[in-house]
């Protein structure tokens, strides 16, 4: 085959890819129109039976064209997710017009290349308007910016699949005057990054935020005791240190390393192959969440000092048929041995049944505070394979 033939084939591929994009954009517009029907008829945004039927039909047709089921499933699950999340985002925007402006300021930990920045870009990608980023040095700084009205939103990591709950953030939420308005999950792919030409054997010091150190503990143990670990305020500052100090490395994402001029010495450092962090998005005022979309409510409560009081409180959720997805206990700062509980519920406080459950919960607790009611971002795929 000649070079000219190759170029001609590549032109054909380019054309097909452009056509695919045009069709995807058209599909998205039609999906937006379907939303109008759901709003008028008060129907849930998601229709899993329709998705299931659609995927089965596509897989069968795709097979006749020589495409395998796994490939078709992967491609269309992504298209469906986009379609559903976009409808949800549009609906939420129409419900909360006051919270929409041409530009919005978001405070997150670190700066260019931090994992928080990746999560911020992912979460706000569906939102029109100009994103103004405010890099912060600590979690308190983030909530402070939101409380003072210097940021419209703050992004805080709350849990990680390798290292568990991020206690500092839970403790901060006890007193911060902010409301949770959203969540986003970001996959975290830790790499060891160093200046070009530095080899693993040359490294004497590794810089990282405490979270990546915890999430990559097994890899770090394997390197032996001769390498010093220095904790940094954020992944961005760890990268800067690796840039400034010879024979050192930092833990961060490959993208962040590339951006700043560091190369990947080793990838896949996390203890768990599937390493994800869930972030919460906070704002000064709570948002209204449509009952047509999957919703989470996060609350904080202190139970009474009586036998069975936690069990009694949790029974309220069971009796009202409310699914609890997380229960976390944290000490009360300044009151040794006192505990507060963080609870995530699959519930929307706009529903009368949820309001009744929360009223009843008060009878079994010393206090209850709703930290937020927000759109659940995790979309469970329908299973066809
Ligand atoms: C577009 C719709 O809404 C959602 C998105 C779908 C899609 O993009 O094909 C299918 C079902 C729904 O979960 C619809 O209900 O038809």
From TrEMBL:
E.C. numbers: 4.2.1.51, 5.4.99.5
SMART domains to which the protein is assigned, alphabetical: CM_2
KW Lipid biosynthesis (keyword) present: no
Organism this protein belongs to: Pseudoalteromonas fenneropenaei
Annotated InterPro entries: ACT-like_dom_sf, ACT_dom, Chor_mutase/pphenate_deHydtase, Chorismate_II_sf, CM_dom_sf, CM_II_prokaryot, CM_P_1, Preph_deHydtase
Annotated metabolic or biological route of this protein: Metabolic intermediate biosynthesis; prephenate biosynthesis; prephenate from chorismate: step 1/1; Amino-acid biosynthesis; L-phenylalanine biosynthesis; phenylpyruvate from prephenate: step 1/1
Record CDD domains: ACT_CM-PDT, PBP2_Ct-PDT_like
Residue ranges occupied by any Prephenate dehydratase domain in the UniProt entry: 105-284
Domain Chorismate mutase per the UniProt entry, residue ranges: 1-91
Keyword Isomerase: yes
Keyword annotations of the record: Amino-acid biosynthesis, Aromatic amino acid biosynthesis, Cytoplasm, Isomerase, Lyase, Multifunctional enzyme, Phenylalanine biosynthesis
Role played: Catalyzes the Claisen rearrangement of chorismate to prephenate and the decarboxylation/dehydration of prephenate to phenylpyruvate.
Main location: cytoplasm
Name of the protein in question: Bifunctional chorismate mutase/prephenate dehydratase
Domain (ACT): residue spans on this chain: 298-375
A Pfam family reported for this protein in Swiss-Prot or TrEMBL: PDT
Compartments, record wording: Cytoplasm
NCBIfam families attached to this UniProt entry: CM_P_1
Catalysis: reaction(s): chorismate = prephenate; prephenate + H(+) = 3-phenylpyruvate + CO2 + H2O
Matches recorded under PANTHER family: PREPHENATE DEHYDRATASE P PROTEIN, PREPHENATE DEHYDRATASE-RELATED
One Gene Ontology term of the molecular function aspect: chorismate mutase activity
SUPFAM superfamilies found in the cross-reference section: ACT-like, Chorismate mutase II, Periplasmic binding protein-like II
């Amino acid at each position: 085959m000649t070079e000219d033939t190759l170029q001609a084939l590549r032109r054909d591929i380019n054309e097909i890819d452009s056509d695919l994009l045009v069709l995807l954009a058209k599909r998205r517009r039609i999906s937006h129109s379907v939303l109008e029907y759901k709003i008028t008829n008060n129907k849930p945004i998601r229709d899993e039976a329709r998705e299931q039927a659609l995927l089965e039909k596509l897989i069968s047709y795709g097979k006749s064209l020589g495409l395998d089921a796994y490939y078709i499933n992967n491609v269309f699950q992504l298209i469906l997710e986009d379609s559903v999340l976009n409808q949800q985002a549009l609906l939420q925007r129409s419900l909360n017009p006051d919270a929409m402006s041409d530009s919005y300021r978001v405070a997150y930990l670190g700066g260019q290349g931090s994992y928080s920045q990746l999560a911020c870009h992912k979460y706000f990608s569906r939102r029109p308007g100009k994103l103004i980023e405010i890099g912060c040095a600590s979690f308190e700084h983030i909530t402070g910016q939101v409380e003072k009205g210097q940021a419209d939103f703050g992004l805080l990591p709350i849990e990680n699949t390798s290292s568990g709950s991020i206690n500092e953030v839970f403790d901060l939420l006890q007193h911060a005057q902010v409301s949770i308005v959203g969540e986003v999950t970001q996959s975290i792919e830790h790499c060891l990054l160093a200046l070009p030409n530095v080899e693993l054997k040359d490294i004497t010091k590794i810089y990282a935020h405490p979270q990546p150190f915890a999430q990559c503990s097994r890899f770090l143990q394997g390197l032996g005791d001769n390498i010093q670990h220095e904790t940094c305020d954020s992944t961005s500052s760890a990268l800067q240190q690796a840039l400034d100090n010879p024979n050192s490395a930092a833990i961060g994402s490959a993208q962040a390393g590339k951006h700043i001029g560091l190369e990947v010495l080793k990838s896949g450092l996390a203890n768990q192959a599937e390493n994800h962090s869930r972030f919460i998005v906070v704002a000064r005022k709570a948002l209204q969440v449509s009952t047509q979309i999957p919703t989470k409510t996060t609350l904080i409560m202190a139970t009474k000092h009586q036998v069975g009081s936690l069990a009694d409180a949790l029974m309220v959720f069971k009796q009202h048929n409310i699914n609890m997805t997380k229960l976390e206990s944290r000490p009360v700062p300044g009151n040794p041995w006192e505990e507060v509980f963080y609870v995530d519920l699959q519930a929307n406080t706009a529903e009368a049944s949820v309001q009744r459950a929360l009223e009843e919960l008060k009878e079994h607790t010393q206090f209850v505070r709703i930290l937020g009611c927000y759109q659940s971002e995790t979309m469970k795929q329908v299973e066809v394979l």
